[in-house]
Structures are given as structure tokens and as C-alpha cells.
Amino acid sequence: MVKWEGVIPAITTKFKEDLSLDIDAFNNNTKAQVEAGINGLVIGGSLGESSTITHEERMILLNETKSFVNGAIPVIVNIAESSTKDAISLARLAQDNGADGLMVLPPMMYKSTDEETTVWFETIAKNTDLPILVYNNPVDYKIEVTLDIFERLVKQENIKAVKESTRDTTNITRIRNRFGDRLKVLCGVDTLALESMLLGADGWLAGLVAAFPRETCAIYYLVKAGRVQEAINIYRWFMPLLELDINPQLVQNIKLAEQYTGLGNENVRAPRMVLQGAERQRVIDIIEKSLKTRPELPKYLDL
């Protein structure tokens, strides 16, 4: 069962040198995430290079991960399709293969109207029994799931949560004021995570967690325990790294960080290319400086 709270990584997809799936590397990262205290895992999100992996590969990752974690955490499949038909097909495929939930984006490659956006989510929800997290990211995807849209969507029982990525933290309070606890709220922007949790977000659907799972989880558990200043201290150290998530090359940035922390490699599928030149050096400088000053963490899982 997905509780839609805590730290839920939108994990990267690991590739071998020939760019086939690297299941061993994927499982190695997943092991580190589970040991750090995550509360779920999203497969094939934007950070997971959704646009370059096939539905078949998604199901391979789903089945391998379900087998590997053996019920320790829920496994969620991302849906980012261009047609309603394909979105329904993937939702049903995920359900048939044992997914615990779905993260659903608005239509890709078409800026839908509010009515079209509403019907898109309603139709997908009606065609699966799985619980759904609505990904609301108008900054990157140019479609906002407004509160009025959510007014209709909450009538679908299996629409359970929102990945709040509007970059406007006051939206958390608006959601709470309008819907109470009907919708779980997960922060989807790494650089706003601590603020969002203090404002009432239920958790953090995170990116840099792929390379730094313990630091990410420590912030969440410290906030939950009321030890906010300790969380702030870690968060301030973390911020230069977290800013790598709000960047068009977030996949390359985070995969390079994973390589440095021993939790992955930087192989990406075209049209992406590994970081090069001055930008590569800039990111390396951030990672290396952060590793040199990496904070000692309290025993946050014992709080």
C-alpha cells in the first residue's frame, strides 16, 4: 500500500556502456535507498529518462525491483504519454505487472486546456484500480493542474496525491485549506523540500536522493521529529547539490553525482549526452566540494 508520505525517490535508470539496462547497478542503488529509509520508489520518471525507455523496459525494471525489495517499499510507475490511449495501456500494463501505484503527468507534446487536462486524469483513473499521484509541474510541462481541476479529480477515489512542483510553496496551504487531508502533498522540487514539509507537505519526491539517500532521508526524519535546526544545517550543506535538480541537465547532473558516490554511472541515452567542458567542471566542483564537507548524520532512523 502506498501511503504517499516520506521520501520517495524518482530514481534514475541505470545503463551499461552499450546503453542496455543495468539491473545490477539499479538494484545496488535501490539497496542504498531502502537502507537509508525511503518510503517508496518511482520508476521511469523524468529523472528516469522516461522519454528514452520503452514500456517493456519499464516492466522489466518494475518486476526486478518488486522482486528485489520483496515488499519493503511500494514501487510506483510513471506515466508520461502523448495520447490517452497509450496512457491507459501503460496504466493497465503496470497494474498487471504488480505496480503499487502510478505517478501520472499531464499529456506530453500538447498543451491541453483545463477541461482536457481534467478529462485526461479522470479517464486514466477510471481505467485502473491503482492509486494515483498527479504530477503538477507547470514550469517544465506548461500545464497547471489548478485547484479547480483538483475539485473534480478528488471525486475519483483512486486519485490520492499530488507531486507539488509549481515552485509556489503557498500552494501547499491552498491545497490544505481547500481539500484538508483528502490529497496527500509531496514536494517535487528539491530546493523547496524543507520549506514545503514545514508548511505541511507529507513528504518529498526527491531527485538528488539518487546519489545522497541518507542525507535526504535525514532531513525528512529530523523535520518529522521536530529537530528542525538540525535539518536546516544539513539542508544548507545540501543546497548546492539540490540546485543541480532544477536544471535542464538534471539527469546528467545527478548521474554524475551517483558516479561519485558509488551509486551509479553517468551513462545516458541520446539525445542526452554526458556533461562536457566548463559545465561538466562546474558540476564536478560542486560535487567534490560537497563530498569534502559531507556532514555527520544523527541516527535519524531511531528518532
Automatic annotation (TrEMBL):
Family: Belongs to the DapA family.
Taxonomic superkingdom: Bacteria
Protein name (Swiss-Prot/TrEMBL): Dihydrodipicolinate synthase family protein
Keyword hit for Ribonucleoprotein: no
Keywords: Lyase
Family matches, as InterPro entries: Aldolase_TIM, DapA-like
Pfam families assigned: DHDPS
GO molecular function annotation: 4-hydroxy-tetrahydrodipicolinate synthase activity
